[in-house]
């Protein structure tokens, strides 16, 4: 049997005060005396009062639901971002509805096309690897639904976005390899069309240029983000006539895949071939040798992107902002020759 919850009217009748006074006390309005508010809160707890979110939403023309579109939820980075989003959403009285694309542009388009916009106050989005021009998201914004991007963005859409500093992180990762004695550095990159793939590639190239090291196109391989992709990329590098002595991977999963491939080939990771990743996934400290990486501020990305979305919801004329958060080099065994 469904449990009965008291209403604001029940509290007002029990205390013999007005409905409006109870409502203002529950909202902690400035014009309610402290002792009145304490009486209202005590009676609300006694009568098992729960706020009616649907009624509140109807009154304020809001659903108090935020949509989150992302490629997956099983890896460390996205689960940490969601934790940051959830903290801000919960503290602001919002619920989250997750839409997982499985990194498919087609599924992403279908989801956006079929979203019940009336049930959402705004949308947080990390686009799929092969996402199109972002016109679906622009159409939502044109209809009055705020959209904020995080991590992977649709560059053509003019709205707020929160990303890590991909360029400088990649530059630092590559320069670290140079400073540790590696001279023939390859890059196993992400999908070619993504903005952060290009940014990390540019950081890698500029670090090589700064130190006068060779840039070979055959040492740059584009593929997906999985461990299997990283393993295959490393095997392909070893088919080159001139083999690299270090690998900078676009993320930790690919770096781990590359390390496993090198082990199968009988190559000693670190001493013979250096490897650096990007994320600071927990597996980086567990694998042997442990993986040097650029730690991404995933939790902060989630928190800041959600707060920006709430700002867009509250102020329809809120100017778009781009927030770029720095990463941090974490040095471990995979990039040390001794």
UniProtKB/TrEMBL annotation:
PROSITE patterns: HTH_LACI_2 (PS50932). It holds the Pfam family Peripla_BP_1. Keywords: DNA-binding, Transcription, Transcription regulation. It comes from the Bacteria. Residues 6-60 form the HTH lacI-type domain. InterPro entries: HTH_LacI, Lambda_DNA-bd_dom_sf, Peripla_BP/Lac1_sug-bd_dom, Peripla_BP_I. Transmembrane segments: none annotated. PANTHER family: HTH-TYPE TRANSCRIPTIONAL REGULATOR GALS, LACI-RELATED TRANSCRIPTIONAL REPRESSOR. This is LacI family transcriptional regulator.
């Amino acid at each position: 049997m469904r449990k009965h919850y008291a209403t604001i009217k029940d509290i007002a009748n029990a205390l013999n005060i007005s409905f409006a006074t109870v409502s203002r006390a529950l909202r902690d309005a400035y014009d309610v005396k402290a002792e009145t508010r304490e009486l209202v809160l005590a009676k609300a707890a006694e009568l098992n009062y729960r706020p009616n979110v649907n009624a509140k939403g109807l009154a304020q023309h809001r659903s108090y639901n935020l949509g989150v579109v992302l490629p997956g939820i099983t890896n460390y980075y996205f689960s940490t971002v969601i934790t940051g989003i959830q903290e801000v959403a919960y503290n602001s009285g919002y619920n989250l509805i997750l839409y997982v694309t499985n990194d498919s542009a087609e599924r992403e388009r279908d989801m956006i096309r079929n979203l019940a916009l009336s049930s959402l106050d705004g949308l947080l989005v990390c686009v799929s690897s092969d996402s199109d021009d972002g016109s679906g998201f622009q159409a939502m914004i044109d209809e009055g639904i705020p959209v904020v991007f995080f991590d992977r963005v649709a560059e053509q859409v003019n709205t707020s976005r929160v990303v890590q500093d991909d360029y400088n992180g990649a530059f630092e990762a590559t320069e670290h390899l140079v400073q540790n004695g590696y001279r023939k550095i390859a890059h196993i990159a992400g999908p070619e069309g993504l903005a952060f793939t290009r940014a990390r590639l540019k950081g890698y190239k500029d670090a090589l240029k700064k130190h006068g090291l060779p840039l070979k196109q055959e040492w740059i391989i584009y593929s997906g983000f999985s461990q299997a992709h990283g393993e295959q990329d490393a095997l392909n590098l070893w088919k080159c006539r001139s083999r690299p002595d270090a690998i900078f991977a676009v993320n930790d999963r690919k770096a781990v895949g590359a390390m496993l491939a090198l082990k199968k080939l009988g190559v000693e990771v670190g001493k013979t071939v250096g490897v650096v990743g990007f994320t600071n996934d927990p597996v980086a400290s567990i694998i042997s040798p442990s993986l040097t990486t650029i730690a991404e501020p995933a939790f902060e990305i989630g928190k800041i992107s959600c707060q920006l979305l709430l700002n867009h919801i509250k102020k329809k004329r809120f100017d778009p902002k781009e927030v770029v958060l720095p990463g941090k080099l974490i040095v471990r065994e995979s990039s040390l020759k001794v």
